[in-house]
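Summary for the steering committee. One of the milestones for this cycle was to obtain a three-dimensional model of the protein with magnesium ion bound, which we needed before selecting residues for the alanine scan. The sequence and ligand used are listed below.
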Amino acid sequence: MISDKLEIDKTWTLFLDRDGVINTLQHNDYVKTWENFEWIPGVKPSLAYLASLFKHIIVITNQQGVGKQLMTEQDLEIIHTNMVNEITKAGGRIDHVFAATALLANDVEQMRKPGTKMLELAKEKFPTINFAKSVVIGDSESDMIMGQKMGTWTVLCNNKNEDIQADFRINSLMDCIHLFKF
Ligand SMILES: [Mg+2]
């Protein structure tokens, strides 16, 4: 149960992690093809609901499998095109997907979370983004740290680790129905 609610309005931005929030984690592997992409139950109707609350909904994802040459940029693009199309068909909306694909050692721009470069690129693309009026939902500490560095609100999803600092905790995107007040 969520005791507190976060008060938002339609100028706010939602930043969503992908693996572990939208689709299930692959055991010790990357989602390399659309066939491997498994929706977490309830995500599509939850995103349809969230589409009515937020001005921008942006996916921010680390995909080092590309840098490791386990998959190509094109493989990743196909997955994201299909993902966004299915979300749209279900009444939801993803305005943009930012993916950090470089190998950790080559990530000079600090694209990879907990680096903040993808948030900065999002603000370049959508200049009305205000990080104080933004929410990051992710299942990893790196998602929370990225958000904290830029002053967003943070929501830890699907992670029981009490050592991870976050403003709110939810079990899945379906809990968002209790999280936001508007
Ligand atoms: Mg994740």
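Key point for the committee: The chain has a mean pLDDT of 96.
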